[in-house]
Design brief:
It is a single chain. With about 210 residues, this protein is mostly beta strands. The chain is about 0% helix and about 60% strand. The strands form three sheets. The protein has a nine-stranded antiparallel sheet, with no helix packed on it. It has a two-stranded antiparallel sheet with strand order 7-8. A hairpin with a 3-residue loop joins β7 (about 140-145) and β8. It starts with 14 loop residues before the first strand and ends with a strand. The mean pLDDT is about 95.
Length: about 210
């Protein structure tokens, strides 16, 4: 039954204990800044299959998630900007059905993700406001199904690129943008598989 165990007891909300620590960098008069952090999350009262009663669940599962996150923002000279980030996550069931014990939860998403964006905007002269940017997003393989009984089904890792050219003035902005420049076929999802758009080019005027 949904919401109760075999004895009719209502399930409690899951409880998580988290600790996190990190460092923050600010250098060269603020032209470079960044953060680096580590976290550890332990969840208890996770609902899992009741091994003694078919079609029922019990609430004594636990899982652990830990990882690192890093972010960097740089403005080495006027008009030029760099943004980069990286995240790594390790997650697993520490008390669960034998079917998934010790495995990464299918709802955890990719273990590794990264992003990068660099742009430049001319700040003076006759073409003041003209600029361009290019960036990339990366996601590691994504375990959509991960169990002993059903096996492992994985959405592959992917890297996509995007770019923009714009003319930004006080009273108007014109831009041409391109997403998924390399026409990469890729899928996202947490326990699901969702195809994403291929190359898309569009213009805007504001």
């Amino acid at each position: 039954e949904n919401g109760t165990d075999f004895e009719g007891k209502t399930f409690r909300p899951e409880q998580a204990n988290q600790w996190e620590g990190g460092v923050k960098l600010n250098a060269f008069g603020g032209r470079i800044s960044g953060t680096l952090s580590y976290y550890d999350i332990q969840v208890k009262d996770v609902i899992r299959t009741d091994p003694a009663h078919a079609n029922f669940s019990i609430q004594n599962g636990t899982q652990r998630s830990r990882g690192v996150e890093a972010n960097l923002i740089a403005n080495p000279f006027p008009g030029f900007n760099i943004i980069a980030g990286y995240a790594h996550n390790e997650g697993k069931y520490t008390s669960a059905d034998a079917d998934v014990l010790g495995r990464r939860p299918a709802s955890s998403g990719p273990a590794d993700m990264a992003n990068f964006w660099v742009s430049y905007r001319i700040a003076t002269g006759a073409v003041n406001g003209l600029g361009a940017g290019v960036g990339s997003n990366y996601a590691g393989r994504n375990l959509i199904v991960n169990s002993e009984s059903q096996g492992v089904f994985t959405a592959p890792a992917y890297t996509t690129f995007k770019a923009t050219v714009f003319y930004d003035r006080p009273r108007y902005r014109l831009s041409v943008n391109a997403d998924n420049l390399t026409n990469q076929k890729y899928w996202i999802g947490w326990t699901t598989v969702n195809p994403q758009p291929l190359r898309t080019i569009y213009a805007s005027a504001t």
